[in-house]
Amino acid sequence: MTRVTPSRFSPNYLKQLPEDLVKYIQRHGLDKEFGRLDSWASSIEKRHTEMEGWQVDNLVLSYWHIACMYRHSAGMAFSRFLEGLKNGKILGTGCESCGRVLIPPRTFCEWCFRDVDKWIEHPGTGIISTYSLSYIGTDPKVRFERPLIIAVVWFDGTVKKVNSSRTVLYAAGLLHKVQGVDPEKVHVGMRVKPVWRKPEERVGSILDIGYFAPFEDDAL
Amino acid sequence: MDIWIAGVGEIPCRSRYDDMDFREMLYRAAVKAYFDAGITPADVDGIVSSGMDFYEGMSITDSYTPDQVGGRLKFNTLVSNDALNAFIHGCMLLRTGQFRTILVTAYAKASDILNYPEIVLNSFDPHLIRPLTPHFYTIAALDAQAYLANSGCEASDLSLVAVKNKRNALKNPSAAFAEDTSVEGVEGTEVISEPLRRGHVAAPCEYAAAILLTTERSLGEVRVEAFGFAAGSYSPDFSLKVWGQSRWARAAANMAFKQTRLRRIDFVEISEPFAHSELTVLEALGVVRESICKSLRDGDFNIDGHLPVNPSGGCIGMGYPLNAAGLQRLAQSINLLRTGKWSSCIVASPDGEVVDGGAAVVLSVGV
Question: The whole model's pTM is what?
Answer without folding.
Answer: 0.87
